[in-house]
Amino acid sequence: MPSGDVTTTASPWTASRSTPRGRPVDCLAPLPTARAGVAVTALGKRIMVIGGVGTNQLPLKVVEMYSIDEGKWKKRSMLREAAMGISVTAKDYRVYAAGGMGLDLRPHSHLQHYDMLKDMWVSLAPMPTPRYAATSFLRGSKIYVLGGRQSKYAVNAFEVFDIETRSWTKFPNIPCKRAFSSFVTLDSHLYSLGGLRQGRLYRQPKFLRTMDVFDMEQGGWLKMERSFFLKKRRADFVAGSLSGRVIVAGGLGNQPTVLETAEAFHPGKNKWEILPAMPTPRCACSSIVVKNCLLAVGGVNQGLSDAVEALCVSDS
């Protein structure tokens, strides 16, 4: 596990509709199109929100971009096919979008990139494993795509696309197969967190506290003790890395309502810490780290949410 001790102070969440006490708030404009299951990524000082499911419960083609400098949203070139649960990452002026689920409810194997300079989408080599609700991240010239689902079943596939050679490579599968988990990268480690396990051995879905860790230098999964697991069982939640910590917030658990709790894993101490709760408890929302803040975008809480809230963590 990574070592070192970083002391941080978590500020209250900032939101587009409320003012936390004790500090000024950077108000964020709500999404023009209310939706869940969107894909979110950053291109410089712009945040791109792609696809998702709308108020009619159908996948969308809509692509919208937020300018941090202007504080405004703009429509961009739509997806070729309506889709929710797309997995995205960005490099230079391009956004790479993998998988998704379309109007026919089947998982996609599509890989495409969006060219910001030309405002257009281009198709690339398809993924070996069709899926939606996967997670992508960029390391060097490679795009890592993990997990996801096919229909209601979890996928534990771990595949990597090389941008330079435009080819796919299979990596060791995720040890614990589950849906609605989250993945976070921190230094040379990849964290697979929480989720919902369902299979023939389980009559009812089971929310998990599981944390699996992949060592990207050695190319293998580490064996983790239960003491490293999350404090709260949760699935379909927000996650990211801030100031040397792994952050998780919201989602669904064993309670009848959406979770508002947030927690952070400190690799140097090998323990979880409690963070301020989300102002708007949500599940099925997307997240992105911008300017050392974790943004939670859209989602579901007794209906679709247009909330955009940020948790900021600073070194002390």
UniProtKB/TrEMBL annotation:
Feature: compositional bias, Polar residues: 1-19
Keyword Repeat on entry: yes
Gene3D superfamilies: Kelch-type beta propeller
Region of interest: Disordered: 1-24
Tagged with keyword Chloroplast: no
Keyword tags: Kelch repeat, Repeat
Coiled-coil zones: none
Entry-linked InterPro entries: Gal_Oxase/kelch_b-propeller, Kelch-typ_b-propeller, Kelch_1, Kelch_domain_containing_8
Protein name per its UniProtKB record: Kelch domain containing 8A
Species the sequence originates in: Rhinopithecus bieti
High-level lineage: Eukaryota, Metazoa, Chordata, Craniata, Vertebrata
Chain's gene name: KLHDC8A
